[in-house]
């Protein structure tokens, strides 16, 4: 298996926020702040770049929300994206385990 | 009531874009709100009732609607883009919010991605100018003249400043303030201007003369004085290409206003290229003496 590159914090949190279902940019941003207890913020420039790159990689895809009158872009995790997130989590877990061994 | 506008012609180097952001914020605090940002000039409207904070982004945006939406979600308003890929964004200032609320790149990776795009562009351009400088350097070594020397110097400076800019931009850190260096930008544009002016004006002032003469048979010796005249408008090295084919030796000369010979060549079979002749300002002419059938071609520049 190809060794996966470490993910940036923003990529990791965006994928994490989408694990339980599609969300829009602002929702991802709020959820990230809540999850990280304010440690991680995702600014708009970072958000646009990260979502663009992850769409190109095929990790997430854009869908239009049908709820309500306002059409909004939602981001949804793909199977490849879920796999990438899983790989990152196990990489982080291995690193933690290694720290505990020392 | 008509709106009051103000224009600013201040330019900023890309690696110093944080300085521009800071100045836009200051303008907003003083009641001047950005209407349109540009590389060469920006327009402001007077409105003392609001305060904005600005940010700049550099990229080719694939999906403008999505870009605007993502920024709007966090209170950013898209102002405009410049022709070369810079985007101006503004957000209403709320003193209660922390400084981080006005950052658009919140991790090192995404900031590096943004600065990296410009770094790549400037590096490619800098290397290209560098290659042109090397080519020009060879021309200066083999056949120096004023326009080439000027071209070489401007290319070296342009290449150096671009690579220096790329280096500074690459090392930009989040939230970093850079020293102002509009002088560097001034030097860069001065070089571009001098290079172009030298190309257009100095090149155009050179004689750039091309002429031929021939005769199958000559019954009595010909001495042709000043069959072509040309002006040298500034002292420099000028280069002569000369081709002579004659049955009997032919003498070719370049003479100045006082009929003094500044260059002479005699022969039956001459084919010389890039003969360097140092000429002061003045008016010159070609002189030829021959007593047989001949063919002569010469050019000077």
Q: From the helix content, strand content and strand pairing of chain A, which structural class follows?
A: mainly alpha
Largest sheet of chain A, described in full?
A: 2 strands, antiparallel
Q: What would you give as the CATH superfamily of chain A?
A: Winged helix-like DNA-binding domain superfamily/Winged helix DNA-binding domain
Shape of chain A: globular
What's the number of extended β-strand segments of chain B? 12
Q: What's the gist of this structure?
A:
The complex is a heterodimer of chains A (102) and B (301). Helix content of chain A is 57%, strand content 10%. Chain A has 102 residues and is mainly α.
Keywords:
heterodimer, A: 102 residues, mainly alpha, Arc Repressor Mutant, subunit A, two-stranded antiparallel ribbon, 2 strands, 57% helix, 10% strand, B: 301 residues, alpha+beta, Jelly Rolls, 3 domains, 5 helices, 12 strands
Word description of this protein:
The complex is a heterodimer of chains A (102) and B (301). With 102 residues, chain A is mainly α. Chain A is built from 4 helices and 2 strands, in the order αααββα. The longest helix of chain A has 23 residues. Chain B is α+β, with helices and mostly antiparallel strands and 301 residues long. Chain B folds into 3 domains: 98 residues, no CATH class; 98 residues; 92 residues, Sandwich (Jelly Rolls), CATH 2.60.120. Chain B is built from 5 helices and 12 strands. In chain B, β5 and β6 form a beta hairpin. Classes of the chains: A mainly alpha (102), B alpha+beta (301). Chains A and B meet through α2 and α3 of A and α2 and α3 of B.
